[in-house]
Amino acid sequence: MIIFIIKYLFLFMTGSLMGWGLEVVYRKYFGKARKWINPGFLSGPYLPLYGTGVCLLYIVSELNVHLGIKIIMFTIITTGIEYFTGLFFLKYYKTRLWDYTKLKFNIQGLIAPLYSVFWTILALVFYFVLYPYFYNKIEFLYGNLEFCLFIGMFYGVILVDVINSFNVVSRLKKFAELAEEKNVVINYEQLKIDIKDKFEELSDRVEEFETDFEKRLNQGMQSLKVKKSRPRFLLPFKGEYELMQRLHEQIEKRVSRKKK
Q: How many CA atoms lie within 13 Å of 57's alpha carbon, on the beta-carbon side?
């Protein structure tokens, strides 16, 4: 029983981490944001939705049934996880974690045929590429149970993250309920994009200010440096005022004179 639990804790952890990496790249190059945006509901580098999906896909992969049936099950499982997760946050927390409303034949903006196709393709990649790899890794895990310490640390971190993240969406829910407009829904991803855009705008302004400030400061420091490095009558080489630069200038002058 303990081995069984460790097996699926490992699958959930690995799937959550890999899914997070996949979503980060997707949002940067293909998503609405086209920025490096931390995806998902939690703050850390993991997506439980993918972890859950990997565990269920692993179970289906082990079934002794025809590949066609497995493909159908892959589609139902991945689309179902996406729909019910999105529906829970939408109905209870008034928060939309993703938005498919602009896609054709979408259902409540939570699922769409296009993404169901994507999930099915990813499930097939898992089945043909990752499933054998995971199988071997789990065999390794059985013989090296000390690795469970790392798994335990992962779940300790994710537990704290879950508590904090639910506190955040609870505040968003209160904001939505107190808004003058009825049926307000918070778009979670768009909120992240807006915050990042505002931060980058402010960062640009601060950078401009810092550049101007540094320019003036450097001018003042250079003036001070010149004064401090002024050559002295009795100790002409004690000061370090651009000594090497002056030596190079002398050499260049000599070379130019010889050429003439």
A: 32
